[in-house]
Amino acid sequence: MADTGLVITRHIQPHKLKYTPPGQYSAASSFHHYEAIIIKDSMQELIRKGRETEMLSKVKGKLGVMNLLAYWEPLKSNGEAWSTEIYLPNNNDRNSFWWKLFDTEMESEVPECEIRHRIIQVLGSEGFSLTIVNSTWKLFESITHAMLGWLTMYQEGYLHRDVSIGNILRLKKPEHRERFHILPKFKQGASDGTRDQLVRNVQIEVKKQAEQLEILIEELGITNECVAVIADGGMCIEVEECFKERGLHVRSGTQEFMSNALLKLQRATEQHDQSPVDDLESFFWVTLWTLMNHTKFAGLRTKEEEEWGTSLCHGIDRRTFVAVEVNDLSDVRAVDHCQIIRDSCKFMQDFYRLIASIRDLPLLVKQEGRNDPSEEFVMWKWHSWAFEGVRRFLELIKKHKDQLISCPPYQALALRGAGQSSS
Ligand SMILES: Nc1ncnc2c1ncn2[C@@H]1O[C@H](COP(=O)(O)OP(=O)(O)OP(=O)(O)O)[C@@H](O)[C@H]1O
Ligand SMILES: [Mg+2]
């Protein structure tokens, strides 16, 4: 941040910065022990302002999440917020600045101007894209840590809602973090606070899932060394907020990685509450996308793989076709494919089945005959889906770990494929 005369007066945590010297931010002494700091400078919608930083503050120092060191809202010298308002007409004038592009009902109302405020965040974990990790194991290990980070955010009461390739980062250097743990609320089992037996049953289910998850984490040797994070809480929402205005929230995500259910909303008007199930499905599409777009295999892919890569960005039907094709890869057919796909196809087959069954969880609530379930019941169901999804993913990691770890690093093979010496 190098804007001259920038006065920092609010939300300064934890370093109590008072002033950012122009052009010298990276020299700020509070951060001298970090090899690199990342400045995220964003204009945030007013309804979202503060959510990302609040969420990141709550999960600070935990495994699998971005490390937020400080944040603030820069103010102009007159104390006003740094906002997009200066570019926008005031409310009385907005009619004259609005013209309809299409003659549809949807555009009959002049929308309110969207005002955004500037927020600066200082992040302390430098990462890089999954498309350049150098082994299949590192890819799956990164997804595992990011998924645990996602569950940590969830336990703190936030749904991430934008699990995408840009928002999962492998860390340049592993970082020492607090071990993943499950909050007491989810391990309590049936609470005395509710008399609804159905809710109590779900609470018992959540406890079971959480306990199994803890055992798996122990078995997998996941301790406090964090190798990857889920980043960008810009679209996160408080879980409780989701229940306040059910069905009214704008669906969120990055198109290529959004769940089928969310994408279908574009085609139909059926109601769908974006839930943990949608985020979990996004982890699958991110992984598949990475397999088809990993940079080490550029120029080495078969024609079919190139087509798969393109199809992943072209809607539900073509994307599902790719998942099914990978699902169908037998040992005999897999040998014709590039290494990253050979290494991963067994895992992806199980992962696809997992996602296909998790998708049904919200429908099961309806089929259980609870057409008008209580908010408390649905919220506990959400918790059970979140824990079940991560627990089952870790079970797959456990099942495939030895095979994934035994896959050779990419570099040598990729270079050899490109006709260069690898010695
Ligand atoms: N700590 C980091 N280390 C390395 N790269 C980072 C880091 N944080 C963010 N980036 C890069 O910057 C991009 C944008 O960051 P981020 O996703 O937090 O912001 P955003 O404004 O919400 O972006 P988008 O709308 O594209 O998701 C990321 O996709 C990633 O490539
Ligand atoms: Mg992002």
Question: Low-confidence runs (pLDDT<50, min 5 residues)?
Answer: 1-27, 414-423
Counting helices, strands and paired strands, the structural category is alpha+beta
Strand and helix order: EEHEEEEHEEHHEEHHHHHHHHHH
| Distinct ligand kinds | adenosine-5'-triphosphate, magnesium ion
Output the strand order for the largest sheet: 2-5-3
Beta-strand segment tally: 10
Instruction: Describe the sheet with the most strands.
Output: 3 strands, antiparallel
User: What is the arithmetic mean of pLDDT?
Assistant: 85
Whole-angstrom Rg: 23 Å
Percent helix range? 40-55%
Number of helices: 14
Describe the protein.
The chain has about 425 residues and is of the alpha+beta class. The chain is built from 14 helices and 10 strands. The chain has helices at about 50-60, 135-155, 185, 195-220, 240-245, 260-265, 275-295, 305-310, 315-325, 330-335, 340-360, 360-365, 375-405, 410-415; strands spanning about 5-10, 40-45, 70, 75, 115-125, 125-130, 160, 170-175, 225-230, 235-240. α2 packs antiparallel against α13, α4 (about 195-220) packs parallel to α13 and α7 packs antiparallel against α11. It is globular, with a radius of gyration of 23 Å. Residues about 1-25 and about 415-423 have low confidence and may be disordered. The structure holds adenosine-5'-triphosphate (ATP) and magnesium ion. Magnesium ion binds near residues 166, 167 and 232. Adenosine-5'-triphosphate binds near residues 40, 42 and 125. This is Fungal-type protein kinase domain-containing protein.
